[in-house]
Amino acid sequence: MINDAHVHFFSSRFLELTAPEAGGADRIASRLEWDPPGTATELGDRWIAELDRRGVNRAALIASVPGDAVSVAEAAAHHPHRFVGFFMHNPLGLDSEAALDRAFRELHMRAVCLFPAMHGYRPDDQCVEAVFRAAAAFGAAVFVHCGVLTVGIRRKLNLPSPFDWRLGDPLGVSRIALGFPQVPVIVPHFGAGYFREALMAAEQCPTIYLDTSSSNSWIRFHDGLTLERVFRTALGVVGASRLLFGTDSSFFPRGWHTPVYEQQRRVLASLELNDADQAAILGGNFERLFPA
Ligand SMILES: [Zn+2]
């Protein structure tokens, strides 16, 4: 059983909020050579057809700009047993508390996604503690993007992205997470360049999970490092029960990013991991964190 812990939901509203000056979702999609997303319901249905085609059971759908949880909520409402709603949130936003409350209470989001490098705060800032408090109150998880942060769509549209990568240190995340032992925390892409720090944070804090998603191109910052060694090292520190398979899929026509899956399957096979551990990484851990 495959569950994908990392799929971006690039809705029409996402495109409009990301590039408000660009003349609407359809025009932006055509500039990007993407299929127009249509309504959130249409896009959700398209993702379901795609997951069915690829043999994927469930997926975390990430609303990828603040203010777009409503799109993911609409898609998830039609497929509540297939989609798990995640949403990007800026804790420095003026209406942070109300937005969190609405996303969890009304829109049934199950994880809040923080991007400290994008929005300019430390991962151990007080504003993050408030996010953890809200997540704890609603039984939700917290996803914190650490390390290298590039946003493909911003680059393609020539939007400035002056993100402060120093703010993505996973050790800042563990400082806060330790105070909320009931809140699962997901650090994507093995820390995306802060691999050592992500492992240290997870060593100290048993609620930290690492997602395996994307091409993990941060590996090139380490001379000679391979995805095999990344998996082997991570398994040695956190074990199979705290790794969440993900692809970082996002737009159509590409759809579900099969090459990422195939690469990780090859790595898992080369590590001669037993079936139970493979099943945990590919879907079981996600199921435990986000029961249908
Ligand atoms: Zn992503």
Key terms:
292 residues, alpha/beta, binds zinc ion
Please characterize this protein's 3D structure:
There is one protein chain. The protein is built from 13 helices and eight strands. It has 292 residues and is an alpha/beta fold. Strands 1-2-3-4-5-6-7-8 form an eight-stranded parallel sheet. β6 (185-187), α10 (195-204) and β7 (208-211) form a beta-alpha-beta unit. α3 (40-54) packs across α4 (69-78) and α5 runs parallel beside α7. The longest helix is centred in the N-terminal third of the chain and has 15 residues, at 40-54. The radius of gyration is 18 Å and the shape is globular. The two termini are 14 Å apart. Zinc ion binds next to β1.
What profile does the largest beta sheet have?
Answer: 8 strands, parallel
Q: What would you call the shape? A: globular
Mean pLDDT: 97
SS-based class: alpha/beta
The fraction of residues assigned to DSSP E strands is: 5-15%
Distance between the termini: 14 Å
> Unreliable segments (pLDDT under 50, ≥5 consecutive)?
none
Helix content: 40-55%
**How are the strands of the biggest sheet laid out side by side?**
1-2-3-4-5-6-7-8
Q: What is the oligomer described by this structure?
A: single chain
Short description:
It contains 13 helices and eight strands.
